[in-house]
Amino acid sequence: MGVPPETAASAGRLAEVPCAACGGLETAPLFSCRDPDGFVPEPFHLVSCVRCGLIFVNPRPDAQGLSRFYYREYYQKPPGFLSGLVAACMRVFQDYRAGKILGRKKPGRILDVGCGEGSFLAGCAAHGWEPWGVETSSAGAALARGKGLKVFDKPLDECGLPAAYFDVITLWQSIEHVMDPAGTLRETRRILKDDGLLFLAFPNSDSLEFKAFGPRWFHLDPPRHLYHFSPRTMGGLLRSCGFQALDADHFYWDYNIFGCYQSLLNLFSTEMNFLYRALKGVRMPLSPGLWAWNVFLIMATAPIFLPLSVFGALTSACIGRSGCIGFYSAKAGPGLSSPHG
Ligand SMILES: [Zn+2]
What we know:
- It is built from ten helices and 13 strands.
- By secondary structure, it is an alpha/beta fold.
- The chain is globular.
- It is 36% helix and 20% strand.
- The chain folds into three domains: 5-62, no CATH class; 72-253 and 325-331, Rossmann fold (3-Layer(aba) Sandwich); 258-316, no CATH class.
- Bound molecules: zinc ion (ZN).
- Zinc ion is lined by residues 19, 21-22, 24, 49, 51-52, 54.
């Protein structure tokens, strides 16, 4: 199932870790789920911190073991006609995302942590911003540099960035990937200007989707998604790292309609996230019969599942329980001005 030759058929050494938000050691098991890319056959286990409620993968691979779950196909474009379709959608989405952030500040210096192949930053540059990126996947960083972007391919705290340097720092669906989210947020605070804006987008463990789909939820993605934050657990983590949460945005149509749709398909598909992986061009060496079944499933259910997903995403957003949410934050502390400008 899509196993690249350079990866082993084992997650390697797994280690138990304390809660990254409160340091608590006592956890309650939630459920087990497999890596949707099929790198290893063993399931990973999601637990919930008894003290603060943060949900995370435990035990988990170490940093070296984890790096083997990222590979170039994770960032590659799909083949054939899908390539143009996905590229067109991504351009629309990146403009949509840029509009969410850049409208809140005058053009300045922006850092995207976990910038992937750099589409969002390229969009920011087109709006007059000075774009910087951090991407620990060397494959992703190479693709971003190919767009003319300034990108570091090491962890944020090893980049040696100057203090109070950035007007805006964004983490699009990346805080759930980092091994030490508190350390990342503290370093983010150091390099953000006093009137700067921090933006985090992440899958929401308090969402209707998480409750409804459980182990079949599109956004689980173990072990790449190490953490599953809710507004409450993220708010607590931000406060402990010197930030104040300003507001949460549940209206993210690019993530939430597709997340709902793919999760619905996952209930019946033989392959987790089949459509998403096909659109990304991930190799899936399935038998012709399995390919046919999964493609048939998409086509046969689309008239029901697509409107249902739009309805689900809209309803979730209206009641503040979306699958993915955006969090706007500012530095906390006396004498710090508002980041809105
Ligand atoms: Zn905790």
